[in-house]
Design goal:
By secondary structure, the chain is α/β, with parallel strands linked by helices. It is built from 9 helices and 10 strands. This is Radical SAM core domain-containing protein.
């Protein structure tokens, strides 16, 4: 599944001129692209991901807004949805942003489309990549539930995600791996399994971080999960402390909650 608008346009949900939550310890101009190849039942951007919120915008218009904000941000960050579905137009945008603003470039992806990532990395340097690792890659049935996929599809997807993570680790200076601790879907033990799998990949990146994130039932979350309570702050913190014992010392360990923001514990 790829969505390719004309080379001079992107299908987007909107943007935020200054964000403090998308790149650790940095300020970003954040752009949301529409559509996703996953159907996570807890997604806070579900309307955007499913294409209900979308508008076709010329790349030049986006560049103009980023140019106005460039003195106040460190990165130009693209998220979604799944941005790599529009990888050709995305490369065009990145190149223009780099040329006209000089900002560092950032991408948030589920890493399930390694061929799209390869295309992006072969055309432009992405300084920071955040990869959302939904569930243990060794448990396709659980990954399917968390990502809203059929198990047979998830069996193929987890291998593609693993490939995407390895590819990314060879093409960026700052890799941020993230997992959302979703009530009734993932347990701290599942997060520990994810951490062990990632640690065993022996990723070689100048800077690498793993972030345990809090689930919050925002307005955009589908009905099934909107009525659930947010993950307790203390549980998120305790889970991050558990995975700190799994990862090697070169990996930064963080947790992210609405109460504390981004907190580094190692």
């Amino acid at each position: 599944m790829h969505i390719q608008p004309s080379g001079s346009q992107l299908i987007i949900g909107g943007w935020k001129e200054t964000s403090l939550v998308d790149v650790l310890e940095s300020v970003s101009f954040t752009l949301w692209l529409s559509y996703c190849n996953f159907k996570c039942p807890w997604c806070s951007n579900s309307r955007l991901a499913r294409g209900y919120e979308k508008k076709v915008v010329p790349i030049g218009e986006i560049v103009s807004h980023v140019r106005e904000a460039r003195n106040f941000v460190d990165y130009f960050h693209v998220t979604g949805g799944e941005p790599t579905l529009q990888y050709r137009s995305l490369v065009t945008l990145y190149l223009k942003i780099k040329e006209e603003t000089g900002l560092k470039l950032s991408l948030d992806t589920n890493a399930s489309l390694p061929e799209a990532l390869q295309y992006i990395f072969s055309h432009v340097k992405i300084d920071h990549v955040a990869i959302d690792v939904k569930a243990p890659l060794s448990v396709a049935a659980l990954y399917a539930r968390v990502a809203g996929l059929q198990t047979k599809i998830a069996e193929k997807i987890v291998e593609r995600v693993r490939e995407g993570i390895m590819l990314t680790s060879q093409n960026t200076e700052f890799l941020e791996l993230r997992t959302l601790l979703v009530p009734d879907l993932l347990s701290p033990s599942d997060i520990e399994t994810i951490s062990r799998e990632l640690a065993n990949l022996d990723l070689k990146v100048p800077r690498i971080a793993y972030v345990v994130q809090q689930f919050i039932p925002y307005e955009g979350v589908p009905d099934e999960y909107r009525n659930k309570k947010k993950t307790p702050r203390e549980l998120v913190k305790q889970t991050a402390e558990r995975v700190a014992k799994v990862f090697p010392d070169n990996v930064e360990i963080w947790y992210r909650t609405i109460e504390d923001g981004n907190v580094r514990i190692r």
